[in-house]
Amino acid sequence: MSVENFVVDAFLRSVLDTSIKTRQQCLALFDHAQTDPVSLRDTPPPDTELDLSAEQQLLYSHLAQLRGSNRNAIMAVRHTKQATAEARQEIDRLHLQLQNLYYEQRHLRGEIAACESYHHKYQHLPLIYVQDFLQQYPEHQNDDEHALMIARIGHEHTEREALEQARQGLLKKKQGLIADNKKRKDDLASLDKDLEKFIDVGAFLKTSVTLADADVWKAAKPIQKILEKEY
Q1: What ranges in the chain are assigned the alpha helix state H?
Q2: Is residue 49 within 8 Å of residue 36, measured between CB atoms?
Q3: Contact (Cβ atoms closer than 8 angstroms) between residue 124 and residue 102
């Protein structure tokens, strides 16, 4: 299989054709020099000189085409290298950007997994059952899971606020009762002291009266004896 069958690029085919023509022209001049060696050493006839000059001009033309093709090929290679370098830089930039996106994706997936596995406090709240909540609030029948959870948490918050208000009221009532009991206890303690004083005073008076009666009886005893003698 010839080389022409492998070359499909138009520029390379033109270069190959020019090189073939140049080779053929060189071989023709070489054959001419071998067939007529005198014409190269001595001055050839005018017709032969014209023929040699025409063939040389044709060879120079082919060589000029080859040089031009070579120059164009060099420029094309330079342009291709520059384009390749720019494309490589763009590919490197895109690859780095892709790696950054992969890193960000892994980071976000890790954050999402951490959020999904995180035990939120609302998950441990003693919320009302969904069926009971929907029976009390049928307007939430068509809510999604997120909206339904928010509504249940709001309901629990309202209930706890009401219970907290009731607790505060009961606490104030308890404090009032404690204060009232303390006041009554103080009153009873004061009454006990007054009663002890009263008892002490009564005992003192009883003792005083008993002593007074004994003195009176002792003084009246001689009179009683006189009266007994007289009667």
Answers
A1: 10-35, 38-41, 46-117, 130-136, 145-230
A2: no
A3: no
